[in-house]
User: What shape does this take?
Amino acid sequence: MVQMDRFIDIEYSVSSATRNVAVNFRMVAYMLGLLIAVETLLLSISTIVALAYGDGDFVPFIISTGICAAISGTLLLIGRSATKPRRRETCIVVASAWLTFSLIGMLPFLLGGYIPSVVDAFFETMSGFTTTGATILDNIDSMPHGILFWRSLTQWIGGLGIAFFTIALMPGFGIGGKLLFLSEATGVTHANIHPKAGTMSRYLWSVYIVLTIATAFLLWLEGMNIFDATCHSLTATATGGFSTKQASIAYWHSPLIEYTLITAMLVSSISFSLYFFAFKYRFKHLLRDEEVRFFLGSVFVVTIVIAAALVVCNGYGIEQAFRSALFQVTSCHTTTGFATDDYLSFPAFTWILIIYTMFAGGCTGSTAGGIKIMRLVIMWRGFKNQFHQIIRPRSVQTIKINGHIFDNQLISTVFVFFFSFMLFALGGWIAMMACGLPCVEAISTTISALGNVGPALGQYGPEFSWAAMPAAAKVILAMLMLIGRLEIFGFIIALHPATWRTSWS
Assistant: This one.
């Protein structure tokens, strides 16, 4: 595996002569036009689903598809003579693509009157594309099939990434494809499984599609109808959490379905590149990966602690306690957001463990959100090395994971990321309290949004929607979802004044 940080330790192969020029807005328009063309395709698919079920929601989808196609065509026309992109253009494109997708993606909700509020529609769509899974809907069961499918599809596309999907679907980006991939990929390290970004994207999307189909097939065999099975497989592999039922997975009361979704969530929270290497070489490499072992170990330990608390304090049976604890812990640790039980009814001390799982998230290169396990491992070993250095000043301390030594620059970036995450969490907490949310709800919704998790604590827990939240709070949390999905640095770089200056070396 090739170790790299997304914005600091990357060689872009761009000549110095092209760096000291203004932002190439034609290139930004062209690349954004291609990305929006993909959203046109996605809206078309949802239109077909709406027509197939005949619920009457096909008209809003047809209008939305036409608007989306017009915007895409206009941008492609503007950027038709664009030159090759550079780092600044790809940073701007990726950040603006997520915002643009959400603004366009909310049109079916608004035009059909299913979510009449612009703020609510934007919140729901941003929650979908960023795979957060928080919802403002209190009547999910009554929504038409096309709308429910669109909600699930937004999460599935957002899981691996909008630009990532476009690269796989439309080869020929050249260096721009590699830059888009590096700007949107999540985590600390990325496996360079192929030198061409398009080929690499297709490999990983193939794994993603296989997992999605397998999950849908199993859910269908276990009692879900084909529509529900498809929608839940889309959101489970994306670790998104949108359901077609207001009661989420608890609606089916099926241990078999729960264990299937637990497996799907765990599998989707492990780096997809590891599956590629596992299929190509040996599966033992997958289980030897230190990040995977730490992640699965964390899920197991937290599950056992909560399961024991449920048996002792809540009177659950052993299997029921284990299954309930495992599902809720997996859902939060993978930042999915499905629910089969109300973890607010668990002993109070377990809420801290739930918050930890939301905070930690899944593995690098997966569809999960959160801080990412790799960063936690690096920071933990950095702390240990610092104490060893104090005891043995002349010793040389390094951080080695999976046989690779991490350089000081990347380690520093991890600590800066963690500090930035905490600053945004603190700022969000204060902003939520200023909007009138109680202390517990304020911090938990902030962490949930920033970690792309979904449910929170208190009145915004797994059994409640976020509809009663003030409009200002919804807008702030929607932006925190975007910041979390772009992993903070992408958002900061896109807005930083230096990005828009003529000279940027």
In short: The two ends are 28 Å apart (CA to CA). DSSP finds 22 helices and two strands in the chain. Confidence is low (pLDDT under 50) at residues 1-20, 172-177.
